[in-house]
Design brief:
The chain is an alpha/beta fold and about 190 residues long. The chain contains 5 helices and 9 strands, in the order E-H-E-E-H-E-H-E-E-E-E-H-H-E.
Length: about 190
Amino acid sequence: MKINICKNSEFSIVNKILGITIIYYPDSELTNNIKSYLDELDCLIIWENTPDKDNSYLFPQSNKIVRMGEGKNVGIGKALNAALKYGLENDFDYLLTMDQDSSFTENSCKQYFNSIFDYNSTAFFSVNYILNGKQLYADEPVLKRIDLSMTSGSVYPIQAFKKLDFFVKIFLLMELIPKFVFGQCTIKFRF
């Protein structure tokens, strides 16, 4: 699939935010899920892992969206590496990674990014997941050190990947085992 540079009419002077949503046989909720965070991004890559299918009719209409994929399921590693490469080549500051079935509640994405920008230190960030109607972590403090994070909702400072070959190797490993990684993988980190 040909890759086009995102043509966003608005330009974020302080922080350029790239997002990636990896899709695999998505349902109609994809549109609303993407709309819950698209306004906070400068560009969104939608990586198509559904074999031989065009799901673009489910994408919100936006010049912020760039389609990528290979017409087959290549797991998440290849998609994340493609987004990272795109982000480095196009001077993005942060990468938000999202699953097709994940969304933000009203204004929470904006608040999330404001907390990240206020932190003023290089770190990887994760949302406080709501699983089975219950938050994974207690509400306090807003920013808390954690040992594990799921991919969806995580934010990475892109420039850190120039120094951290370790994460690139993890993402490459994920490419080798897509059936294990799909929906099950967590990434362990300390900062």
